[in-house]
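Fig. S4 source data, part A: sequence.
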Amino acid sequence: MQKKKYHVFLSFRGEDTRQNLVDHLFELLSPAGVCVFLDNERLRKGEDIGLSLKQAIQGTYIHIPIFSPNYAKSAWCLKEVMEMSRSKGLITPLFYGVEPADVKYPDQRPMYADAFNAHDLNRRHKPETV
């Protein structure tokens, strides 16, 4: 097995989770010796995942997408999940303010189904992302 740079990669929608859940997770994991990748950059709409972010995802053992009410509204978050699935690493989702049934395809509840439909209508993604 190839040695990875990070133990955990956190994927999250900042407006939902940065100030509460994400910061707390980081503060708990880091002192315990867990190397956490936390993307603190503010990205512009439509911007593609950069090489450094792809490398961080590929160089991580455990990926944690934090599904929250606005997570699927972000094309960027969906791109991160797609890259996680390509990485062949362990994906352990957390559900914050949503239930697994809200997210599960093809029977998403309106919160996620509406977000995916909006991406489709606005052509803000490649079809394989959603």
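Fig. S4 source data, part B ends here. The first strand starts at residue 6 and ends at 11.
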